[in-house]
């Protein structure tokens, strides 16, 4: 950044940073302050990571920008991940911030093929929050950990002044073992891979929004919040040569696919009608002007699978409770590298861009 400490011309402000020396592209250049979109999992999130955090921290592991880091300690292959949870409201149909804190981190580890083993848990509590509410969240978190087969091994508690914490926030970090022969990362997608989603998309974002905004859609939409470790183990039981796994949380399926396309320098072609969307979610999105492909999920994954294994992997997924609605939605191609397109029911093609921010903020 340019030096702004020198003498200024009369009448000019000296407390405004000079962005002329920045190399990062708009819109980050045009945002002197953090906005909600910087935490939405879209283009703004990508820019602040790539142009501020990654250069500041450095390191080859971070540069992969996977859901979890793959590390080796004492000859043992591990996956390591951390995530923070600021969802509002704290409880919603199908889950709570406690469930998210476990399942979100377990799923990040699973996207590297790892079996989650231990979690850390940090609670940031706002002064004045009701102790029974904290207890409810802690009980939900503990139950989710037991269901996922992980142990909360360490933690921390901090309290901030009233008005500075929105009730409570949670951070969890997790560590798990990566099986021998497994190499799952975004850079491994290649033309010819078949793209599979594990089930219908969009339920989590709509469930959170319906409670937050007091909306009714004729039928209650429940979050899909779940731990995906068992489903991934089922898939690895078919073949350990899975190329990419990603849980499409913030930014939805669209953001996940764009990130993979860019990381692997490949194109992705979707079939619009093949993407499963629950009727209630489709109706809610139609009313609100949202695209289900951009709505967050918390219990779904997208997989890039070598074509020769795709049929068998899909069949195995459908035998698992969390993959009963699994479907092939597209393929990886050489054309338009770094871009995702969808073929519409009318025979046309549309570009599925990386969202700027999140259509529905504060969903995890």
In short:
Residues 67-178 form the PurM-like N-terminal domain. Residues 1-20 are annotated as: Disordered. It contains nine helices and 14 strands.
What does this structure look like?
With 364 residues, this protein is of the alpha+beta class. It has three domains: 19-56, no CATH class; 65-177, 60s Ribosomal Protein L30, Chain: A, CATH 3.30.1330.10; 186-351, PurM-like C-terminal domain (Phosphoribosyl-aminoimidazole Synthetase, Chain A, domain 2, Alpha-Beta Complex). Helix content is 30%, strand content 22%. It contains nine helices and 14 strands. The chain has helices at residues 43-57, 60-63, 97-110, 131-148, 203-213, 229-238, 252-264, 279-288, 307-319; strands at 69-73, 76-85, 91-92, 95-96, 115-126, 151-160, 168-177, 194-197, 244-246, 267-271, 302-305, 327-333, 340-343, 349-351. It has a seven-stranded mixed beta sheet. Strands 1-2-7-5-6 form a five-stranded mixed beta sheet, covered by helices on one side. A two-stranded antiparallel ribbon has the order 3-4. Helix 4 links the parallel strand 5 (115-126) and strand 6. Helix 3 runs parallel beside helix 4. The longest helix has 18 residues, at 131-148.
Features:
60s Ribosomal Protein L30, Chain: A; single chain; 364 residues; disordered N terminus; PurM-like_N_sf; 3 domains; alpha+beta; HypE
Overall radius of gyration: 21 Å
Name of the CATH architecture of the largest domain: Alpha-Beta Complex
Q: Uncertain segments of ≥5 residues (pLDDT<50)? A: 1-29
Order of helices and strands: HHEEEEHEHEEEHHEHEHEHEEE
Beta-strand portion reads 15-25%
């Amino acid at each position: 950044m340019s030096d702004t400490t020198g003498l200024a011309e009369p009448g000019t402000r000296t407390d405004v940073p000079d962005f002329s020396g920045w190399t990062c592209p708009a819109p980050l250049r045009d945002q002197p302050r953090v906005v909600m979109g910087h935490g939405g999992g879209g283009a703004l999130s990508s820019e602040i990571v790539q142009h501020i955090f990654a250069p500041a921290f450095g390191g080859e592991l971070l540069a992969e920008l996977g859901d979890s880091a793959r590390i080796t300690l004492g000859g043992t292959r591990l996956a390591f991940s951390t995530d923070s949870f600021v969802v509002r409201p704290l409880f919603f149909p199908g889950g709570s911030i406690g469930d998210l804190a476990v399942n979100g981190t377990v799923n990040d580890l699973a996207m590297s093929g790892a079996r989650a083993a231990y979690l850390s848990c940090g609670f940031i509590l706002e002064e004045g929050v009701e102790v029974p509410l904290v207890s409810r969240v802690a009980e939900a978190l503990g139950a989710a950990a037991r269901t996922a087969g992980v142990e909360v091994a360490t933690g921390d508690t901090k309290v901030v002044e009233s008005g500075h914490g929105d009730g409570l926030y949670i951070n969890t970090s997790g560590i798990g073992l990566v099986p021998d022969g497994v190499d799952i990362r975004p850079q491994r997608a290649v033309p010819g891979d078949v793209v599979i989603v594990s089930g219908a998309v969009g339920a989590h974002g709509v469930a959170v929004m319906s409670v937050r905004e007091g909306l009714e859609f004729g039928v209650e939409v429940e979050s899909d919040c779940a731990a995906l470790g068992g489903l991934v183990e089922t898939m690895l039981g078919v073949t350990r040569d899975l190329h990419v796994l990603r849980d499409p949380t913030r930014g939805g399926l669209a953001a996940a696919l764009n990130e993979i396309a860019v990381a692997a320098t490949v194109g992705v072609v979707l079939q619009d009608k093949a993407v499963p969307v629950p009727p209630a979610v489709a109706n809610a999105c139609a009313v609100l002007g949202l695209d289900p492909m951009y709505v967050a999920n918390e219990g779904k994954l997208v997989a890039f699978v070598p074509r020769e294994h795709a049929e068998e992997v899909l069949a195995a997924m459908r035998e698992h409770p969390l993959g009963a609605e699994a479907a092939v939605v597209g393929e990886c191609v050489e054309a338009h590298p770094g871009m995702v397109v969808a073929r519409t029911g009318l025979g046309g093609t549309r570009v599925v861009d990386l969202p700027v921010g999140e259509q529905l903020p504060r969903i995890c």
